[in-house]
Amino acid sequence: MNETELKNYFANLSYSADITEYLEQVDLSEWPKLLRLIEDPEKKAEVVAGIDETKLRDLLTKFKPYEIAEIIKEMESDDATDIIAKLPLSLRYETLYRLPEAQRHQALELLGYPEDSAGGIMQTELAHIQEDSLVADAIVKVRELVEDDVQVLIIWVVDIGNRLIGSVELSDLLIHKSTTNIKNLIKTDIICVKPLVDQREVAQLFKKYDLLTLPVIDDEGYLLGRISVDDIVDVLTEEANEEALRMVGINAEELAHQEKTVSVAKIRIPWLAISLACSLVSATILQLFQHTIEKMTIIYAFIPVVTAMAGNVGSQSSTILIRGLAAGKTNFTDIPKLLYKEVKVGLIMGSFYGICTALITAFVLTDRNKFLGYTMLIAMTAAIVTAGVLGVLAPTLLHRFKADPAIAAGPFVTAFNDITGVLIFIITAECFWGFF
User: Fold this and answer.
1) Beta strands 223-228; 164-168: pairing state
2) Are strands 223-228 and 155-158 parallel, antiparallel or unpaired?
3) Quick one: which of 412, 413, 410 has its CA closest to 248?
């Protein structure tokens, strides 16, 4: 399509998400030109706000400060702050300078909070009214905000000093007379959060209390802003993506540098180094027991069976623990109970798969070598139990040493389970080699 056709196409799309989806299908270098074809400033702002953050930083550097400022002017405070935070410092200051004074001060205030905190994801546009107001005043306030495209989910009630004292549901404004005093409708049992609370804890509050919106207050009780459920959806998506990447030993930074070979290599090298070191340890163990392998060359073929099963069980255990920690369903005081459970589960799974493997080994893959079957039964059971225990201990130890537990689900656990699997299998075979 030519530029005129594209302009008309974008203008006729009702949802900005459809334009974002279209952009995802073309090369990133074409995005600035395509975004400039969107004539509706509000729609353009919505499209930019919906772009994946791994691509957003590179995209913004292709715009002039005045263009970024024009886009930010149409955004809600939380989205605008996210955009500004992703700009290089030189571009950030130039962009802030071009914003209206009120919006500039608002952005600077929000930038003062950590990006992954309640203050970092809150929005300052909200419906609040003083306790001595009438229902009619509240309705006027809601209409003003809706006309400015601010989503209103609830009315926050403050005292004369802007301290939060309660809330009023929108439905209450409809069923009461306009002359009714807001004091008579206030609900004081509200859940609040401080601005420095981690966004994961905020997400857990939304889930626990089934919230649609949550006020943010300071230590004195002053109303600072609010967090809505759509912000929490973004938080959960971001956390899930980061956790999935950490579990395989990479992070979101790699996605942001997909075209930069050296940058991607630098990110991956440390984790591959762990795998290499542990593989060399496994090789050293095999060399130490070379005399056993030479006498029973057949056992060499079964080493990958034991290490693969142990690696899978270890990854499952650590993933379950990390998921539980992230969801707030598990804490580190539960570790003894989790270890006991993993030992019991490991014994059941190890015995089942150990018996299956022993039977196949003895009667299908060998000529009724029952002692090799015994070796597989014992080694498989012991390796699976050990892997389950390591899957719990590894994240716990990493947390104790101030490291991110999520990395234990990737190269760390798998590599160490390879070592223990090889060691257990070789020692077991050593005990039985005289009967082969």
Assistant:
1) unpaired
2) unpaired
3) 410
In the block, residue with structure tokens 């690696």: 311
Residue-level pLDDT at 324: 75
Instruction: Please check whether residue 164 is in contact with residue 192, taking contact to mean a CB–CB distance below 8 angstroms.
Output: yes
Cα torsion through 260, 263, 268, 273, rounded to 10: 130
Q: What's the alpha-carbon Rg for the chain, to the nearest Å?
A: 30
CA 204 centroid distance within chain = 13
Indicate the pLDDT class of residue 250, thresholds 50, 70 and 90. Answer: low
List the structure tokens of 292.
Answer: 């056993």
182-239 pLDDT tens trace = 999 999 999 999 999 999 899 989 988 999 999 999 999 999 999 999 888 888 777 7
> Cα dihedral angle (310, 376, 294, 287), rounded to 10 degrees?
20
Return the HEC string of the chain: CCHHHHHHHHHHCCCHHHHHHHHCCCCHHHHHHHHHCCCCHHHHHHHHHCCCHHHHHHHHCCCCHHHHHHHHHCCCHHHHHHHHHCCCHHHHHHHHHCCCHHHHHHHHHHHCCCCCEHHHHCECCCCEEECCCEHHHHHHHHHHHHHCCCCCCCEEEECCCCEEEEEECHHHHHHCCCCCEHHHHCECCCCCECCCCEHHHHHHHHHHHCCCEEEEECCCCEEEEEEEHHHHHHHHHHHHHHHHHHCCCCCHHHHHCCCCHHHHHHHHHHHHHHHHHHHHHHHHHHHHCHHHHHHCHHHHHHHHHHHHHHHHHHHHHHHHHHHHHHHCCCCHHHHHHHHHHHHHHHHHHHHHHHHHHHHHHHHHHCCCCHHHHHHHHHHHHHHHHHHHHHHHHHHHHHHHCCCCHHHHHCHHHHHHHHHHHHHHHHHHHHHHHHHC
- Between the alpha carbon of residue 157 and those of residues 73, 130, 165, 240, the distances in Å are 28, 6, 6, 35
Domains of the chain: 3-112 (1.25.60.10), 128-246 (3.10.580.10), 252-435 (1.10.357.20)
- With 0-12 / 13-18 / 19 or more C-beta atoms within 10 angstroms meaning exposed / middle / buried, residue 291 is exposed
Buried b (16+ CB within 10 A) or exposed e, 63-92: bebebbbbbbebbbbbbbbbbbebbeeebb
User: What does the pLDDT read at residue 369?
Assistant: 72
- Token readout for 87 is 């700009």
Query: What's the chain's average pLDDT?
Result: 83
